[in-house]
Design brief:
The chain is mostly helical and about 210 residues long. The protein has one domain. Helix content is about 80%, strand content about 0%. Helix 5 packs across helix 8 and helix 7 packs parallel to helix 9.
């Protein structure tokens, strides 16, 4: 029997993470990619656990010239979702908002958000909007504590824009290099992202 016909190199078989990355990246060329980004950004602001940055990066890498358009779509979806989150905190905190906050171990974070707002007013609101805490905790807390809606909205617009347009800018100028790096060191990048994600949740859980 010819060994060349039966020999299989397991290293060359794509991993599940690799296939998921390729599938996500394919949205950059899909007509519904922008809509998917908008919906994920909207849902992530109130209930959905996956941040929209993952799809935003994939879309920008696959279509560098449209990076700022994707950032605008992501920002718009996130802000609209933030308004929904504010409404959940304002009118339905005990029934809907509190279980969400508990799921993210966000009770201590809510206390800190209130302290920032009481101490620094609008700038405390802005600080909470730009720090790397789950945005849904910030939106729900803002509604639950009856923060000024106009200040909340302005802080959200500034904070979300800074975050997503910073990502878009980096990918606009270095998208090709970043894509080549991800393709070459995908498994290492995947593990690094997972470690950072877990570290973020642990920091959120034990924040005082």
């Amino acid at each position: 029997m010819n060994e060349e016909n039966v020999s299989i190199d397991p290293v060359k078989k794509p991993s599940i993470l690799r296939r998921l990355y390729d599938w996500t990246l394919a949205w950059a060329e899909h007509p519904a990619g922008s809509w998917a980004l908008f919906v994920i950004a909207l849902l992530e602001s109130s209930v959905f656990p996956i941040p929209p940055d993952v799809l935003l990066i994939a879309l920008c890498v696959g279509g560098v010239s449209r990076s700022y358009r994707f950032a605008l779509i992501c920002t718009a979806g996130s802000i609209i979702g933030g308004i929904i989150g504010y409404g959940i905190g304002y009118w339905g905190f005990e029934v809907i908002g509190q279980p969400i906050v508990r799921a993210y171990h966000g009770e201590a974070v809510m206390e800190k958000i209130q302290y920032w707002y009481d101490t620094y007013g609008f700038f405390g609101n802005l600080l909470a909007a730009v720090t790397p805490i789950p945005y849904k905790v910030f939106t729900i807390a803002s509604g639950a504590f009856k923060f000024s809606f106009h200040e909340f909205l302005l802080a959200s617009i500034i904070g979300r824009s800074l975050r997503f347009f910073a990502v878009a800018t980096a990918l606009y100028f270095f998208g090709a290099k970043i894509r080549a790096t991800i393709d070459k060191y995908f498994n290492l990048c995947a593990w690094a992202f997972m470690i950072l994600l877990i570290a973020g949740f642990l920091a959120l859980k034990y924040l005082r």
